[in-house]
Every structure is written in structure tokens, then in C-alpha cells.
């Protein structure tokens, strides 16, 4: 049980003062009253009233507060930071891997750099391409497709450098699918003729014909004729005949068919990257690219 410091002259003082004078009483009083008070009151108070490490006085019987050593705290902080960083790295790597898988086999985004598909697609649009077409899914007449340059359709234009580091970062993000391809070596057009189709322009009514039937092309830009270049070709096997919706501003299959029989102007199916399924940017132009010929 803690001992309370004695207070001279109080009723709780453990030493009773002598009532009569005398050396013994005086000495006893000095020893019992003063010295005892010093020992019991002052010394005892100093012993029992120890200050804690923070500097605040500690009451009698109160346990002494202890703190973790600074080195131990630093180790705990470093360990927690390391764990958090490892988790972030794992999440980022998994996200990049998933994006790469999606971009390689399922979906890929492309940037529209020209006006050859207006008014369906505008310069600056971003489209998403379904890479299961052709292959797991059939290509249909009327589909909008992205394909790699089948043979000098595109004029090489050097891209302005943004600096070595920024260029490398941009190419890396395009590679894993986090940024759309700038379409430097790809084109986007509409499929007008499938393998074996006879495509000609134009019939008596001024419309494009496929296998002798006029094609209803509501997607052609208003004011443009179906074609100002006459042609009559049969699409070779494993190839497609493609044309832009902005017919007066599209160097498509018509411009590259040197032989005039569809062989050089048509695009090999192996060069088709996929079918454009939606405009995803800008947000105010977000729309699904449905097949206007009712084929998908």
C-alpha cells in the first residue's frame, strides 16, 4: 500500500509531538518531527512522485510509461512501406498484363487521323476494334474494318518526336494497349465486297451494285456520289473490296486496282486487324458502329 507523505502538524502525522520541554523530548521531536518528516515527507515524496519519460508527474503506484526504441519504430515503418509498394507493383503488373492480353487477342483502340470515313468517323475519334473478326466471327458486307497497309497505300510521314523518354513511354503504353494506336501503318474503310462478289459502279440508277443488285448506301457522306471512278471487278478469294464513306476523299480499293480486275485493289483477309464496333472518344460521340446493311 503506498505511503502518503507526512504533513507536519496534521492529524495524520505519524509522530506525536512531546508535550513537555526537555532535551530528550526536543531531540525526539526534532528526530521524529523534523528529520522524520523530512525522511517520510520529502524523501518519500521524491521517491513516490517519479516523473514519467514524457515529463509529466506520475502518481504513487502508477506504472512507468515506456516507448518503443526509435530504431524499432523505423524498422516497422520501413516494413509497412515495403509491403505496400510490393502490392502496388503486383497490381500494376497484373493490369498491364491483362491490358496486353486484351489488346493482342480481343479488343484494340485506334485513333482516326483522316477524313476518309466522314461522316461516320471524324478526325480525332477513337474507335475500339473487335479482333475476333475475322476468325472466330465472320466478316460481313457493310462492316467497318481496320487493316494493315496491304502495299504502299499510305505515304510514310515522319512523326514529330516528343523526346526520347516520352516517345519510349508512349510506344510502351500503345504496345500494352493503354493508349490507342496512331494508325501509322493501318487504315480504316468499309467492306463493300466479300470474296467472290462482283462489285461495279455504277448502275442505271447511279448506285453501286453488288452481284447485280443495287446497294443502299445510306452511310455515304451527303453530297458524295457512290464513285466518280467506274469499275467492274470480282473480289478474289480470301480478299475484300473496301471503300471509304467519304467517297470523294478516300483513296481506297478503287485507287489501287492497277489491273482493273480486283486483284491489287482488294485487301487480303490476313491483313484485316478487326471490325470497328464503337466510337469511345470523345464522350459526346460515344456510339456503337452497327452494320447499316443489317448484317451485324
Short description, anyone?
This protein has 296 residues and is α+β, with helices and mostly antiparallel strands.
The radius of gyration computed from the alpha-carbon positions, rounded to a whole number of angstroms, is 45 Å
Record field, number of beta strands: 12
Strand-pairing-aware structural class: alpha+beta
How far do the termini sit from each other?
91 Å
Helix content: 25-40%
Proportion of strand residues: 15-25%
The averaged pLDDT comes out at: 79
Number of discrete helical segments: 3
Low-confidence stretches: 1-54
Largest pleated sheet:
8 strands, antiparallel
| Quaternary structure of the protein | single chain
Walk me through the topology.
Elements: H1 23-48, H2 70-105, E1 107-111, E2 126-130, E3 144-148, H3 164-176, E4 186-193, E5 198-201, E6 209-210, E7 213-214, E8 231-234, E9 239-243, E10 267-268, E11 272-281, E12 287-288
Antiparallel strand pairs: 1-2, 2-11, 3-4, 3-11, 4-9, 5-6, 5-8, 6-7, 9-10, 11-12
